Amino acid sequence: MKHIFIMNPAAGKGDAAGSLLEKVRRFAKESGIDHEIHRSLGKQEIHDYIVKRVDCGEDIRFYACGGDGTINDVLCGIMGHDNAQLAVIPCGSGNDFVRNFTNRAKFFDLQAQLDGSVMPVDVIGMDDGGYALNMINIGVDCDIVIKVEDEKKRGSKGAKGYLKGALQVLPHYTAYRMRYELNGELIEEDVILAAIANGMTCGGGFKSNPTARIDDGLMDVGIIKPVRGLKLMNMLIQYHQGTHLKSKSTREYVTYFQCSSFTLEPLSEPSASVDGEVIPFKKTRFEILPRAVKFVVPKGCGLVAGPLPQN
């Protein structure tokens, strides 16, 4: 099997371009694996490179060395190719997808990666041809992601950066009018945010969709209606902890359900964050694609939501 490491020099604080690069070179030489190191030149370049490689039919394990956005770039390239596997060395700011696993330090252990097991995981497909491995956030959550990019430049990473961004955006947030169908009823309402999730967390550890599981064949959809003042701050705390689904103080503002497909139509102009990458949002149909990609779970890791499935 070929091992290809996709390096994103812009991820995190430059880990992929520095110490990790040397670590990979040293490990590849010592282990004798057939490998390549490919330094990313951008989203489209990664996609074109990966498609060209997998179209040759060779069995390849791609290591996404970056954040959730880099994982998404690699994912989009390998979708539909049975000869490709996705591994992750998380070097981003949030690294939310790997938070679905226990013992996350093993994702940095190259021997554990090499000895890892392949787990088929679900993917969210969108009718515009896009995919998400972890989550799509629409509305205020995406506005916070935009603000977080500024916080990254000041050195705030992960949940700390997300929290700083949230505290700047939320006091003056814009609610977005949206339309969707639930249990046969067409609903039109103002929404702070909508999270369509395969994984549990966003924003570097905020447990927005705490019941989500990456192999259950379902999406978890969370919709938050407008809330202000102290109740909003309380909501933020519980959103971080993942207790907002059970709390009496927040329950009236939360709509939460699981489904295999879901259509959301904005009646205003929000943006969407697809695995951390911001795009304009229009009416979109989301569909879960069960066991659509082969994900490499490093040896010693397990699922937070339960045991790994048997191959």
What features would you describe in this structure?
This protein is of the alpha+beta class. The chain has two domains: 2-121 and 292-297, 3-Layer(aba) Sandwich (Rossmann fold); 135-289, Tumour Suppressor Smad4 (Sandwich). The chain has seven helices and 16 strands. The strands form two sheets. Strands 1, 2, 3, 4, 5, 6, 8, 9, 13 and 16 form a ten-stranded mixed β-sheet that branches. A six-stranded antiparallel β-sheet has the order 12-11-10-7-14-15. Helix 2 (43-54) packs parallel to helix 3 (68-78) and helix 5 (140-153) crosses helix 6 (158-169). The longest helix has 14 residues, at 140-153. The two termini are 19 Å apart. The mean pLDDT is 90.
Brief characterization of the structure:
Helices cover 26% and strands 32% of the residues.
Which CATH architecture of the largest domain? Sandwich
C-alpha Rg (nearest Å)? 19 Å
| N→C terminal distance | 19 Å
**On the 0-100 scale, what is the average pLDDT?**
90
Give the biggest beta sheet: 10 strands, mixed
The CATH C-level name of the largest domain is: Mainly Beta
Order of helices and strands: EHEHEHEHEEEHHEEEEHEEEEE
Return residue spans where pLDDT drops below 50 for at least 5 consecutive residues. none
Approximately what portion of the residues adopt beta-strand conformation? 25-35%
Number of separate domains = 2
SS content category: alpha+beta
* Annotation field: number of helices: 7
Shape type: globular
CATH topology of the largest domain: Tumour Suppressor Smad4
Number of strands: 16
Estimate percent helicity. Answer: 25-40%
Oligomer state equals single chain
